[in-house]
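Reopening this one. Same input as before:
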Amino acid sequence: ALGEETSVTGASRFRLGRALHAFLLVARLCWRLLRFRPEVIHVNTPFRWALWRDGLFVWLGSLSGASTVLHFRGGDFSRTLPESGPLYRAFARSVLRRADRLIALDQETARFLREQVAGDSVRYLPNFVRLEEFGVPPRRDERASTRIEILFVGWLVAEKGVVELLEAFSSLPRARLTLAGPADP
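Same output, byte for byte:
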């Protein structure tokens, strides 16, 4: 919709355009479940408002007979869920119990998810970068004159570690930092 904000945060409000888009995604999933009969459905969720849609994906996938994996991309689920309304909390907990596997990017979320669901369905799987795939920095005297290139690709918000990155960057005199991604004011 015209003039609609593009980022979605915990403070975001209902937008008709987003609701229609979510409805179309749910309809597409239903069609694919019927047509392809997948064995596994992997759903990434930033939770918050998106958990309404992503939770439906988990429920529909589970009802179709597929195994479901719900992968949490954010790290503050353990703080926001208890502060949410009772309907959202009940729905979120039903989704957590319905998913066959829950993946957390950080230990705090993994611990919280284990408190919410019984059994061994929670896995801690942090994001990672294999540094050896990017080459090894020079180890000779030229290292002091070599410029360090740093690239950050992601949502430019404090929760993604951007503040710590900027602090670390300020201590690197021969470095260039490139930030790529949407920013919140």
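So the earlier flakiness isn't reproducible anymore. For the record, Residues 16-36 form the longest helix (21 residues).
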